Amino acid sequence: HFSCSCVRGRSRLPLWLREICAYVRLLVRSLYFNALTDSDVVFDSVFEPVFWTVDHVTRWFGMVFVCLVVILTSSIVLIAYVVLLPLVLNTYSPVWIAWHLCYGHWNLVMIAFHYYKATKTSPGSPPTVKNDIPFVSVCKRCIIPKPARTHHCGICNRCILKMDHHCPWLNNCVGHFNHRYFFSFCLFMTMGCVYCSVSGRNLFLDAYNALERFKHMDMEKPGVPVTGMGLLIGILPPGQTNYQTPPPPYTFKDKMIHKSIIYMWVLTSTVGVALGGLTIWHAVLISRGETSIERHINNKERKRMAKRGKLYKNPFSYGRLNNWRIFFGVEKRSHWVTRVLLPSGHAPYGDGLTWDIYPVKKDMMPV
Predict the structure, then answer these.
(1) Per residue in 298-357, pLDDT tens?
(2) Among residues 19, 150, 282, 364, which one has the fewest Cβ atoms lying within 10 Å of its Cβ?
(3) Does 122 have pLDDT greater than 80?
């Protein structure tokens, strides 16, 4: 009798409300629809609206981040040319002048080249037409086969070959074909920030102390008190007891120069510390033959194999030095200069679809 009354009560509900209830029940049941469901699936399902919002906001603000990088970097370069270069030419010895000019311009060229290539080079995507390339799974978003090391990017809305992460500062994914450009940009940007921070430390201290002196001078009331005989002989008009001194010996230009030096040192020091930590982290991953995504996957796999008493080995690692050689595309010793220390647009090893690097491995240095 109770069940009949429930059915009758439910039937009295409006159709649109019953449809909503049915849809909610379907969503709840979809969280445990088969035995393959785990905590990761439930987490992804619950936080899907959050991921969607973050992906779309990042996509919309991508060009804003790129413009911010260009503007901040250009401001530091402008200060270096307008403020610092005249100081260097007037105070340093010829040897130090040559060092600063050569190193500074080399570092600037490497930063600009690798940032442009990282933003403009496509990371690579698997083919959408039928092919015989081996794959490990099928993307649930693109509904196409995914080769090894390929992952879907929700921001770019496509699968990326050897995906590391989506970088908002590049407005691009970091993948197989632009991973080297991204890491080189981080490395040379960090080196440039450290160079500016270390070489400009004394200038920063002098500028800061000068601004403090200017501030105290502004707070003091201008003028020298006149007392005694000065008042009797009529140096000042009646009622005035201070003799006005000339204006302070600094100008608006001096203030702007000192503030520019402080701005440059604070910005480069902050970016150098933050970006330096990121660069070190990626260097560790490259040494292990991993990407940021594979780091988490390999950790899970390593724990799973350890429970079975087995040892997990990363199939894409060829030894620390060989991993670096593969990453930078170094085939002979001269390439450490021409392909690492100089701008180079050479393509990485392989096509990002298969990972059989045995032909390369034969020519590798023994490690």
Answers:
(1) 999 999 999 999 999 999 999 999 999 999 999 999 999 999 999 999 999 889 998 876
(2) 19
(3) yes
| Cα distance between residue 311 and residue 55, in whole Å | 36
Instruction: Give dist(CA 316, CA 179) in Å, integer.
Output: 15
Q: Checking phi first, is residue 139 left (phi over 0); if not, alpha (psi -120 to 50) or beta? A: beta
Neighbours of 185 (CB within 10 A): 27
Question: Which neighbouring-strand residues pair with 242?
Answer: 225
Residues with Cβ within 8 Å of 153's Cβ and at least 6 positions away in sequence, in order, are 159, 160, 163, 166, 173
Strand, coil or helix: 50: helix
Q: Give the count of alpha carbons within 13 A of 142, CB side only.
A: 21
Active site (catalytic) residues: 167
Q: What is the pLDDT of residue 38?
A: 64
Q: Which residue has the tokens 């401001």?
A: 75
Token digits for 160?
Answer: 């990326």
Kindly provide the residue ranges of all beta strands, DSSP E only, lying in the chain, ordered along the sequence.
Answer: 137-138, 145-146, 151-153, 158-160, 165-167, 172-174, 224-225, 242-243
Distance CA 31, CA 171 (A): 33
Give the chain's mean pLDDT. Answer: 84
Q: What local confidence, expressed as pLDDT, does residue 249 receive?
A: 64
Owner of token pair 């480069």: 268
Q: Which residues contact 92 (CB under 8 A, 6 or more apart)?
A: 100
Distances (CA, A) of 292 to 21, 57, 142, 160: 41, 22, 22, 13
CB 336 within 8 A of CB 330: yes
The answer to pTM > 0.85 is no
For the stretch 279-294, pLDDT in tens is 999 999 999 999 999 9
Note whether 193 and 268 are within 8 A (CB): yes
CA dist 76 → 80, 264, 266, 298 (Å): 6, 6, 11, 40
Sketch the domain layout of the chain as residue ranges. 54-220+255-341
Cα–Cα dist 172/118, whole Å:
8
